[in-house]
């Protein structure tokens, strides 16, 4: 599969590169665009302040420009937290998208969005302060209404960005379970 993998609000950190390497080792082609143009952050607050300074429209523009040269190939959009929100926005607007892999995040769904059975897999902590239960329930129902085929995997007791070994949220057991399931999802997409 051709995978466009977007980083979190921490920026393009080693954990994102390691995730891309893991996906490549499984036979996938992976791009990791740097939406923050080289900036990385040590806290969510710093990253969010920078994201707000750059602006949502500019970040989406950067993401679209990064994906555009490859979208004809039929991309799987993927991302971590903020990057998952970006991936979701792009996947729902790309009629050639092959799938959507969301790690630690979701996004608003445009009122005019519609997909034809787009496979979507979400991995998220339970509970997650950035993805509360009522939000996730509404998101899941709305994704179904627009035509997505959604799977949600919850990880009780894990922190928000539990797949990043350099962050306090890291949970090795949840991270390995996530990657096992996600790689199976991508393998199924490859055979579709």
TrEMBL record:
**Residues in Dienelactone hydrolase domain copies:** 3-188
Alphabetical UniProt keywords: Hydrolase
* Name of the protein described by the UniProt record: Dienelactone hydrolase family protein
Q: Pfam families this protein is in?
A: DLH
Q: Hydrolase: present as a keyword of the record?
A: yes
The root-end lineage is: Bacteria, Bacillati, Actinomycetota, Actinomycetes, Kitasatosporales
Report the superkingdom from the record.
Answer: Bacteria
GO molecular function annotation = hydrolase activity
Q: Which SUPFAM superfamilies match?
A: alpha/beta-Hydrolases (SSF53474)
């Amino acid at each position: 599969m051709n995978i466009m993998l977007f980083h979190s609000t921490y920026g393009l950190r080693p954990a994102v590169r390691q995730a891309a390497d893991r996906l490549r080792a499984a036979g996938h082609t992976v791009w990791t665009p740097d939406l923050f143009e080289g900036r990385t952050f040590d806290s969510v607050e710093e990253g969010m302040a920078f994201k707000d300074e750059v602006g949502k429209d500019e970040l989406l523009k950067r993401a679209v420009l990064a994906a555009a040269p490859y979208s004809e190939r039929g991309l799987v959009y993927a991302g971590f937290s903020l990057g998952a929100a970006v991936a979701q926005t792009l996947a729902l607007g790309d009629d050639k998208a092959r799938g959507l892999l969301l790690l630690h995040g979701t996004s608003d769904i445009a009122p005019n969005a519609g997909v034809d059975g787009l496979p979507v897999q979400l991995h998220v902590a339970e509970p997650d302060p950035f993805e509360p239960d009522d939000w996730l329930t509404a998101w899941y129902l709305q994704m179904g209404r627009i035509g997505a085929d959604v799977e949600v995997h919850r990880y009780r007791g894990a922190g928000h960005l539990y797949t990043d070994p350099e962050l306090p949220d890291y949970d090795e057991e949840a991270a390995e379970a996530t990657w096992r399931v996600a790689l199976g999802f991508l393998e199924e997409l490859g055979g579709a």
